[in-house]
Amino acid sequence: MNTIELTKPTRPLLFEDIPKATAKIYCDDCLNALKNLPDNSIDLIITSPPYADQRASTYGGIKPDKYVEWFSPIAKELLRVLKDDGTFVLNIKEKVVDGERHTYVLELIQEMRKMGWLWTEEFVWSKKNCFPGKWPNRFRDAWERLLQFNKTKNFNMYQDEVRIPIGDWSKSRLKNLSETDKKRDNSKVGSGFGKNISNWVGRDMVYPTNVVCLPTESSNKSHSAVFPVGLPAWFIKLFTKTGDTVLDPFLGSGTTCVASLNLDRNSIGIEILDEYCKLAQERINKETK
Amino acid sequence: MNTIELTKPTRPLLFEDIPKATAKIYCDDCLNALKNLPDNSIDLIITSPPYADQRASTYGGIKPDKYVEWFSPIAKELLRVLKDDGTFVLNIKEKVVDGERHTYVLELIQEMRKMGWLWTEEFVWSKKNCFPGKWPNRFRDAWERLLQFNKTKNFNMYQDEVRIPIGDWSKSRLKNLSETDKKRDNSKVGSGFGKNISNWVGRDMVYPTNVVCLPTESSNKSHSAVFPVGLPAWFIKLFTKTGDTVLDPFLGSGTTCVASLNLDRNSIGIEILDEYCKLAQERINKETK
DNA sequence: GTTCCGCATGAATCGATAG
DNA sequence: ACTATCGATTCATGCGGAA
Questions:
Q1: What is the pLDDT, as a whole number, of residue A112?
Q2: Burial of A172 (0-12, 13-18, 19+ CB in 10 A)
Q3: B181: which nucleotide lies closest, measuring CA to C1'?
Q4: Which CATH number fits domain A12-163+210-287: 2.60.120.10, 3.10.350.10, 3.30.310.180, 3.40.50.150?
């Protein structure tokens, strides 16, 4: 098993003791790597596991009928490593099998509740640029589930960190304070201030809802991630504070670590495929400040 | 049991034999009234049943734990009265019980599949102006499930009836097509447009997705239902044609009948509360053409 | 610097064809 | 009959080069 550790100063250091956020990547099977993590050590788990029948080369192409069986032991380990006031956000969507939506996600929720998880909420990720196509009996699938699970009812939630500007203008431009927006604006100006989105903080900010609207990232040819960096960023801001630790047990191309570093959170990523680990490392070097 | 029947000419009559759409309201208990309907007679069922613990005075306040048990016999009757090529759209959302989303909707889907329903699709109704409020551990709930069930895989779907304007991207992109674009065939490209881009010229309507964005109807003082008329209207256009019959077994204030009449569809509504039946009648007189 | 345009690229689904 | 593979369908987005 290879382990990659990256430490980056993420802000201009004003004092010597400003904490540095660290990203650690385990290049290993998910269940194996999780055994290395101590109990109650993670503040937020956010992941998008391989969907049924996807990524066959890496994960053996889990059959829809076997999905719950496959994921359950992982869910048990995640329950162990999460802190009592932490949160687990699971991005998932059932596929169509024989003309019907398969029920493995419904079954998974029930199974996870049996092992002690609380099913606190279901967010909707609404994707405007979903996969194209036309069928006689079905429209394009433009949404995925973001299931929120907790260990206890007293979990940390920092709602003020994800407030959005009010009004129609904000709908199109500044929807969810996505990291890409923030970074683009920052890079244009140079300093951490200037034309930053945070300038708008304080003017008619409202709390968002449980519907998250973000486009997928499809044109990045180096990796096939559909997880836009704004998605983990949103939940990291919502459920953790600076210096906390974020875990993604199916890291893929490293999106969760990139988002974490840019927000001064430590992160642990697990990814079985070497080439994805390398890719993650490259992205962390390139896309973090 | 009272029955109200309303027949309205819904368009300027050009010929004597233009069919008139009819709305029929059964003021009765849902299961009782359904017994009056023959097998395989309904083209579309669309309804928003009382949610758990809602409308307690009317339905005895169905407890979340008893929800599946309460709805199952109704679902069986609905299966009986629906035509083989018809569709059942169920608007529902689980409520929060003791800090968790309750699982009665998940269980209901599984139970309905056991009795023969196909769970074809789950649409999301994204509510732009959802109920205001703030809670320490939860955002405002801005979406509801619209579960599509069918009896067979060969159901009627009239997709062209609900097409929407194309996104702005096409205006800038397809204004001036170069000659190469007009001639381009799939020799160059393996995926993506593949075909000729000029196919898109003049095209201004596209098919929607399975995310339905509609605002809730505000300021409706007399009834608590937040079913906007646009919601049944969308599904009526999508799943029925003129002259078909639409059923709403929990009519409430009559929204489904209003939408049906305005689209020249016959409708049958069932509502146990007399005052709701009266209200429905008034709305039908007032809000239909 | 800014806007415009060309182009590739999707956690998809269905139906037909092949073993 | 049952599974595996393949082609056709479709629309919003970001990147990079050009005006």
A1: 98
A2: exposed
A3: C6
A4: 3.40.50.150
